[in-house]
Amino acid sequence: MTRKTGEEAEEERRLFYVALTRARKKIFLSFAQSRTIFGSKEMSAPSEFINDIPNQYLEYVSYPDSEPKREFANIEF
């Protein structure tokens, strides 16, 4: 993973904020822990900006055979 410049990180933060504020009542955030790209398995991480969301707006969801994680959040405004 390449490091982002300050400008790239700020643009990503802006796009994340726009996506959140466009939600009418709820937004579901998730991510794939790994992906297969051109036959090669690559690990991925959730957006660093998820940690900026206050816990009062988060509801943690777990799936069979997994632990509840911050990466799977249901945010209700």
Mind explaining what this structure looks like?
This protein has 77 residues and is α+β, with helices and mostly antiparallel strands. It has one helix and five strands; from the N terminus they run αβββββ. 22% of the residues lie in helices and 25% in strands. It has a three-stranded antiparallel beta sheet with strand order 1-5-4, with no helix packed on it. β2 and β3 form a beta hairpin. It is extended and about 35 Å long. The model has no long low-confidence stretch (mean pLDDT 77).
Q: Which features would summarize this protein structure in a list?
A:
three-stranded antiparallel sheet; 77 residues; alpha+beta
Largest sheet, if any?
3 strands, antiparallel
Shape: extended
Order the strands across the largest sheet as they lie in space.
Answer: 1-5-4
Topology pattern, helix = H, strand = E? HEEEEE
Distance between the termini: 33 Å
User: How much of the polypeptide forms β-strand, as a percent range?
Assistant: 15-25%
**How many helices does DSSP assign?**
1
- Unreliable residue runs: none
The percent range for helix content is 10-25%
Query: For the residues shown, what is the average pLDDT?
Result: 77
Tell me the number of strands: 5
**Cα radius of gyration in angstroms:** 14 Å
Q: What would you call the structural class? A: alpha+beta
